[in-house]
Amino acid sequence: MNKDILIGVVLLAVAVGLVFIGRPNRAGVHPRFLQFDAALVLYPPVVLVFFAGGVAELIAGLLRSGQ
Fold first, then answer.
1. Domain total of the chain
2. Measured between alpha carbons, how far is 67 from 60 in angstroms, rounded to an integer?
3. d(Cα 15, Cα 58) in Å, to the nearest integer?
4. What's the predicted TM-score (pTM) here?
5. Domain limits at 50?
6. Which of 37, 46, 48, 53 has the smallest CB count inside 10 Å?
7. DSSP the chain
């Protein structure tokens, strides 16, 4: 397995984990670390960075393995 593919899978797993960690409970209350205004602004871009990095690494690894 190519390193790029492995890194891409790990980054995607981190992004999915962050999405599930940041979900509010059934009462609609956010997790404790997301109850601050700055966290609500910064958390989505962090998740998107991990997701975009994972997809980019996955595509790069798949393109390099085809050569």
1. 1
2. 11
3. 14
4. 0.86
5. 3-65
6. 37
7. --HHHHHHHHHHHHHHHHHHHT---TT-PPPGGGSSHHHHHHHHHHHHHHHHHHHHHHHHHHHHHT-
**All residues at 6 or more sequence positions from 53 whose CB lies less than 8 Å from its CB, including other chains:** 8, 11
Which tokens in the block code for residue 46?
A: 């962090």
CB 5 within 8 A of CB 65: yes
Angle CA(36)–CA(55)–CA(51) in degrees, nearest 5? 5
